[in-house]
Amino acid sequence: MKAQPPRDKAPAISSDDPVSRFRRVDDPAWHWLEQRDTPDVTAFLEATNRESDRWFAPLDDLVERLYHGHLARRELAVHGLRTPLDHYTVWSETAADADYPVWWRHPNGNPEAAEAFLDLEARAGEHDFLELGDMALSPDEAWLAWTEDTRGDETYTLYLKQLPEGEPSVLLEEIGPEIGWAEDNATLLFTRYDATQRPESVWRLPLAHGRAGEPTLILHEENPEFWLGLGKTRSREWLILESASKDTSESHLIPARAPATPPRCFRARESGVEYALDHRPGHFYVLHNREATHFRLDRLDERRLGEGDPSDHWQPLLDHRDDDTLEGVDAFDWGLVITERDHHEAQVHLRVLELDAGHAITRDERLPLPELPCSLALGDAPHFDTRRLRLREESFILPVTWLEHDLDSGERRVLKQQPIHGDLRPEQLTCERLWATSHDGERVPVSVVMRSNLSGHPLPTLLYGYGAYGEVIDPWFSVARLELLARGAAFAVAHVRGGGDRGEPWYLAGKLEHKANSFHDFLAARDALVEKGLSDGEHIAAYGASAGGLLVSASLNLAPDAFCAAVLDVPFVDVLRTMENPDLPLTTAEYTEWGDPREPEAHRRIRDYSPLDNLSAQPWPAVFLQGSWHDTRVPYWEPAKLYARLTELGRQDSLRDRPILLRTDMSAGHGGASGRFKAWHDNARQDAFILWALGLEGREG
Questions:
Q1: Strand residue runs (E) in 408-468
Q2: Secondary structure element (H or E) that encloses residue 522, with its range
Q3: Bond preceding residue 445 cis, omega within 30 of 0
Q4: Whole-angstrom distance, CA of residue 627 vs CA of residue 692
Q5: Does residue 528 share a domain with residue 655?
Q6: Rounded to whole angstroms, how far apart are CA atoms 627 and 639?
Q7: Counted domains in the chain
Q8: pLDDT by residue (tens digit) across 199-212?
Q9: What mean pLDDT value characterizes the chain?
Q10: Same-domain status, 663 and 546
Q11: Beta strands 535-545 and 565-569, pairing class
Q12: Pair (44, 127) in one structural domain
């Protein structure tokens, strides 16, 4: 099905490789790599980084060309969209040579009085890593609270400053990222983790003149499969504390102006029932899947809150439909904006419902789309009474565009569009949507983008996949991708089951006992690209990150000859062993996604696809693995074990020109480097490997 990259193009690997030096006869599975504090662990990872550097040395010039080509195509000085709040207009600016933004504001109507109020570039100067967890302005816009992670392990410190020039003070350490203000301007809400880094509790922190009092526990979640989150209704009248697992949710309400009020459970959890809330004065809106697999929308008179089971009093607004999934509800004083997804076209839509005083629908229409397929989302809308909606649009060939849509006139005004420089313009690209037929006859959407002047010819192709947690991979524009497209590659996305691309049924058909559908869908997408004449079957590389790494790795175990290479970024590949360890972060919360291996049938099912448990003598293609030392979601040892095991299997393979490479970022977490320039350089290295594997490393962009 494929040919390996030519032998004379494969940079050599040292015979003194790390696997030979660190192999332990009594531990063929390499489980010793889980012992983080053992000196041999860091020595092994540093050795694999040196080996990776040696392999990439002949491609260093290509890496630099890709990196600088990327810089030349994008606007390095970035000015964020200005958002008017009640008193100030706020926005961010990132200098051309900066990694991080500076946040600015000016009094509404007085842009000459601009002042900086949070300089993340300056704050990052003291750290190798910095990630902003959350940032929240007090309702009176006089105080700023934010959380920072400076290790990459997703553990945060809470800061507070008086605006604009107050000195930041540390309020709390070792908390979760989420924070929220009550409407009294004197109370912050935050979350804390348990030992497995599950947000298990919500706390109230009183503030007086910038000083914090003693935190008070508001809500604690005992069930290890549930985690807590914070929110506020758009009406700003209610704080929402949500407890949720992967398939069940429960919301608790606190009056936003009386945050010391004990939380009230809106509706007690019911296994398998998910619901989300928003609010207009007098009414709650409940988006739920109770007896409605694809979700429906009901409303509750606020006066009935607390009268037994609220579902006894729900009034229908939008019924369940077979062809669409309702994904979100946003309330305004005039009505609602509904986010919904068409199952047949795998396309998101925004639907506007205007309501009269009697709650009759006086307007029901979908907002226009720029093209198909595309992404469309509601942007910041801090004012409850606004009739000018901010929208965010993009596609594989449309750069990110922010629009203002006037509900009264229908006028659409472009507020900002991502500028693109260089010789490959968005209008020189073409995007196609095709449908692959999977092993069971299901139709799987596949998106592919390429240069228009190369359309009609089978192209070397990078195939991307994720397929888990119901995550939707809607079309997105990528400046870095232009470097691949300019050199003659195509980029494709397999919208496999397990994701949410075709709504809730698509997710359910790719989780738990149906997980194998995801792998078959990915391979079917690969074959469809070849059969339709879009991709060169000898030169297709695969890419997967995190759960996408599971997707690609399991697909390679099923069909190792399907791809000429694979990039696996922080890949989740030791599925069975991870799910058997409830002490690891996130494991218990994942039972409803993968299954609880304490149950024999779930154990067998996971065992049958877990990539590390299904390696065989069949040689994989060339592989570039990437891990992060501080990753709490997919520990560094998962890609490291896969590297070691594949390397050992490769010794039984006569084709030693199939490199197995591992690179571990020793200062980052699950998302990789925090600074944009380092992240772009890491991406250039990754793309150099892909171009080498596709036989395009000699092409110029």
A1: 412-417, 429-437, 443-451, 459-465
A2: helix 516-531
A3: no
A4: 21
A5: yes
A6: 6
A7: 2
A8: 999 999 999 988 99
A9: 95
A10: yes
A11: parallel
A12: no
